[in-house]
Each structure stands twice: as C-alpha cells, then as structure tokens.
Design brief:
Helices cover about 50% and strands about 15% of the residues. With about 260 residues, the protein is α/β, with parallel strands linked by helices.
C-alpha cells in the first residue's frame, strides 16, 4: 500500500513568524490517527524553513522546500542547494512546478538536473508535470505528459524513481478555482503510472507516489483522494489556512480507511 502524502505548497506566502503560528494551529487540529494514516508535509519559502523546522519538531509532519539548484555550492547568487535544504531539516523538495516552468522558464532538462541533485543528497523530489489549457484543448495532454516524464526522468534508474513523488498538476486548474474532474484526474494518473511501468518496470510503477495538484480544497479532496492511482495531493491556496489544510488531511484519512486493502 502506498501511503498518501498531503503536501502544502505555501508559494511566496508566510513569514517565519506566520509559519510558526500556522504550525502551532494545525498541530492542535490534527490527531494521531490522521498522521498515522496520512503523511503530511509543509513546504514554506526558503527564509521560513528554519523557523518552520523548529516548530515542526515532534509533530510527525515533514518539512519540504519549493525548489533547489543542482550544483552543491558555488557562485550562483540567489540559489539554494540540496545540501543547504538537508541542513535546514527538509525531507522533500518540489521540483518543476508549473509556476517555475512558466514564470522562470524552467525546462524539462533543468528539472531533470534538479531531480538528480535532490536524490543524490537524500531528498525526496516532488516532480511536477502537467498540461496547459491550450494543450488540453488540442488533445495534447498525453503527449505533454510523456515528454515531461521522458525528459524529467532521463538517466534515472527504476529504484530511484521508486523513491520519488510525482505531482500531476493540470496548469489550467492551479489557482483558478477550477479543478480537473475525477475522471480527468483518474485518466491522467493511470496514464502516468502506465508510462512508468512500461519504461521503468512494475516495481517503480507500484512504489512511486502520484499526487494530484490543482485547486485541491476540502470540498473535492475526498473524491480525488479516493481514486485508485492518486496517492496524495499537492495543495496550494487551501494549505495556507490551518482548518482547511486539516480538513484535506482528514479527507485523506477517510479515503485510506475506506480503501484499506484496496490500494496496491
């Protein structure tokens, strides 16, 4: 059984003080049963990582970062390395988010270099893939996903991919309030797992965790997390409010309980 992973991507929100207040609030809301059933991670901005890490101690909630650079150190002003993230207490790092691809012109090749750097340092990459509205309207969803998978995972072994998290985020559903239907999400996740099985083998396809990301909120989390190939959620705006984030985690707990024994 693949354990669900609910990760909150705070993007460019929350100072260190605000992050600590959030963690204190969400710790009061979550139960031991929820954290046993669902793995939870919070990904604040770089400047809030240290304060968030201290606040999370003993909580059972993991810390993640929103990006990294592939070089271990050097003259790369403004960048942060995997080694620095590990030292800050991170376990996860988001790589290739659509906002990084669109606003900062990241490519599948740079995503690949970042994924390799994360794995080499002992971080678990959450590699994001997904199509734009224009690409979906042109029926290019699978073509785009296949390219992003082939180039983003180039040179990686099946055991390495088994350790990863992949986040399918339809770009047209991020921050728009519009989410993919359960049928659309199910189709995309089945395609992604099928591609991994075909190119990297059944073991990698069985163990890699596939998240859905794109306007996940308490109202739709239960339906999405109940899909057989959805192993969690990458949550944006709804992760900024403790009650909303806790409600999504509870939806995950219910999905795990309802499908106990039914997931691979």
């Amino acid at each position: 059984m693949r354990r669900l992973l609910i990760a909150g991507n705070w993007k460019m929100c929350k100072t260190g003080r605000e992050a600590v207040a959030f963690v204190e609030a969400v710790r009061r809301l979550l139960t031991a049963q929820q954290l046993e059933a669902v793995e939870v991670a919070i990904c604040p901005s770089f400047v809030a990582l240290t304060e968030t890490a201290h606040a999370l101690k003993g909580s059972g909630i993991a810390l993640g970062a929103q990006d990294l650079y592939w070089e271990p150190e050097g003259a790369y002003t403004g960048e942060v390395s995997a080694t620095m993230l590990m030292a800050a207490g991170c376990q996860y790092v988001i790589i290739g988010h659509s906002e990084r691809r669109q606003s900062f012109h990241e490519t599948d090749a740079t995503v690949n270099r970042k994924v390799k750097a994360a794995l080499a340092a002992g971080l678990t990459p959450i590699m994001c893939i997904g199509e734009t509205l224009e690409e979906r309207d042109r029926n290019q969803t699978f073509t785009v996903l296949e390219r992003q998978l082939a180039q983003g995972l180039a040179g990686l072994s099946a055991p390495q991919v088994s350790q990863m998290v992949m986040a399918y985020e339809p770009v047209w559903a991020i921050g728009t309030g519009r989410n993919a239907t359960s049928a659309q999400a199910d189709e995309a996740h089945r395609m992604i797992r099928g591609w991994i099985k075909e190119h990297l083998g059944g073991d990698a396809a069985e163990h890699v965790r596939l998240q859905y990301g794109g306007s996940v909120k308490p109202e739709n989390a239960g339906e999405l997390l109940s899909l057989p190939d959805v192993d969690g959620a990458l949550v944006g705006g709804a992760s900024l409010d403790p009650s909303s984030f806790a409600a999504i985690i509870e939806a995950g707990r219910k999905a795990v309980s309802a499908h106990a024994g039914g997931r691979t």
